[in-house]
Amino acid sequence: VAKITKNGEGSALMAKPKLVEEICKTLRKSTDKKINIKFRLGIDDKNLNYLEIGKIAQDAGIDYVILHARTKEQMYSGKADWNHIKILKENLSIPVIANGDIFCVEDFVKVIDQTKADGVMLARGAMGNPFLFKEIKDYINKGFYEKPTSTQIIDQLIEQYKLELKYKKEKLVVTQMRKHLSWYIKGLKNSSKIRDLVNKLNTIEEVMDALEKYKSTLKG
Question: What pTM was estimated for this model as a whole?
Answer without folding.
Answer: 0.89
